[in-house]
Amino acid sequence: MKPTLVILAAGMGTRYGGLKQLDAVGPNGEAIIDYSLYDAIRAGFGKVVFVIRTDFADAFKAQFDPKLKGRVDVEYVYQSLDKIPEGSVLHPGREKPWGTSHATLMAETAVHEPMAVINADDFYGSKAYQVMADFLTSSTDENEYSMVGYNVANTLSEFGSVSRGVCETDESGYLTTVVERTKIKRDDDGIFFYEGDDRFKLEENTPVSMNFWGLKPNVFKYLNEGFAEFLVEHGNELKSEYYIPLLINDNIVKGTIRTKVIQCDSPWFGVTYKEDKPMVQQRIKDLIESGAYPQNLWV
After folding, report:
1. N or C: which end of the chain has fewer CB within 10 A?
2. Would you say 185 and 160 are in contact if contact means Cβ atoms under 8 Å apart?
3. CB atoms near residue 8 (< 10 Å)
4. Cα–Cα distance between 215 and 164 in angstroms, integer?
5. Are 116 and 213 in contact (CB under 8 A)?
């Protein structure tokens, strides 16, 4: 059974200042998603599920349906505020959904096989898709998940702080904890994450999650349970988010899953801020010139 790629693309790009998921970074108007799709198809993924907002649907279908027809199966699902467990209470002023775990839950009706989950605006590199496809097609334990790990020093932006899942692993390379840190940046004296007025140092090679997860179909059971519990505690908050690292960490603690960290030397880069775009364009140009990608992906 071929694995499925779930692309989380419902974010509004507040820090970026626009719909960065579709912003052109390649020589023929390709977005980062185009390169993710190209790499996933090469690695053997058989289906793509886009998690988007309903008002993005026309733009996404116009951009990707012609390119993907005949290459891979495609489905669209929609993340919205009203998709919550019956009886849940939310703040009346709440304006946006609950982040990456909630977004992944939207794919429940569309995915019935092992899956990789990625961010739409991150470039992960072809090797990352291959090692993830290899894991998803070879792992037979329904409670063995995985994550592609990157060194924190290679995932920062020059233009502001970033959010990353900071990881600790055991001697076998399985996660013991993963905690979403929402404000990480490089200062003159090193890399730190901030909580309120305090800051805490991170080593350059600290492994972090860039939201490239390998999950099994039973994740939706854990998502439904975890999201209901999350809303009991945080549903009446304006800006709380249910991140995938929170889901993973809770289930590691419960002993229901184990999550292998797959180290990969693929390049990572992304567009957190508008100022990141020229760097992304240059790195893609360099990869094309090196022969890693054709000048035009879809001809």
Report:
1. C
2. yes
3. 27
4. 19
5. yes
Q: What is the token pair recorded at 10?
A: 């419902």
Give residue-wise pLDDT tens across range 157-211: 888 999 888 999 999 999 999 888 989 999 999 999 999 999 999 999 898 989 9
Q: Are 75 and 32 in contact (CB under 8 A)?
A: no
pLDDT of residue 57: 94
pTM of the predicted model as reported, rounded to 2 decimal places? 0.91
Find residue 59's DSSP bridge partners. Answer: none
User: Do 65 and 92 form a contact (C-beta atoms < 8 A)?
Assistant: no
| CATH architecture under which domain 4-151+208-289 falls | Alpha-Beta Complex (3.90)
Please tell me the chain's helix, strand, coil percentages from 3-state DSSP, rounded to the nearest 5: 30, 30, 40
Query: Which residues fall within 8 angstroms of residue 115, CB to CB, at 6 or more apart?
Result: 3, 4, 5, 6, 49, 107, 136, 214, 215, 216, 217, 219
pLDDT at residue 218 greater than cutoff 60: yes
pLDDT in tens, 2-19: 999 999 999 755 555 557
Whether 167 contacts 175, CB under 8 Å? yes
Q: Distance between CA atoms of 252 and 175, rounded to whole angstroms?
A: 8
Closest CA to 116 of 96, 141, 136, 102: 136
Report d(CA 131, CA 212) in Å as an integer.
11
The residue ranges of every structural domain in the chain are 4-151+208-289
Token pair 């801020």 is at which residue? 273
**AA identity, residue 128:** A
pLDDT computed for residue 272 by the predictor: 79
> By C-alpha distance, which of 1, 21, 2, 43 is closest to 272?
21
